[in-house]
Amino acid sequence: MMSIENLSQTRALPIGLRALRIDDLPQMMALQASIYPPALLESAEVLASKISAVPAGWSSLAATEGDTLCAYALGYPWRSDRQPGWNRPLAPQHDCDVLYLHDVAVATAYAGRGIAGQMVRHLMQQGQQCGLSRAILVAVEGAQGYWSRLGFIATAAGRTDPAFGSDAVLMQRELLPSDPVLPAAV
Predict the structure, then answer these.
(1) pTM here?
(2) Which domain holds residue 103?
């Protein structure tokens, strides 16, 4: 299994990657407020639940430069028979069959450096290692094109939670052992 430490060392990123922690909440709140419209802001309580209510050995990611949170990626095992919601606390999940990429946020000053892609790849690798074969997400704010470039396709599953916005699109992709998008194990 590739550790977060190995990932940041092998990818030559100008920042470090580590597990997201509860003490990152103040910077997470500031980061989301700087890049999302008010309707897409989540509360500190909700974000805290999404950091803590994950299986042992699972971690969402923080990208840091010194003490500054540059980006974060929240993802966790999920049940495909449940519709993802926005700004709702996460309770521990059981009988999960997909990886749900809930939120990938990058500060504007760090955009375009490949940070989001690296964090997504690491979360997808974690999903594979947990026996999950598919990843899902809700693309918001016109991000469908970005996710398409990472191999996600729109699903025919229907509507998403209205809180995601009128342009939200439910997307998915398979997680295959030979997937060239995933980093090779070190």
Answers:
(1) 0.83
(2) 4-174
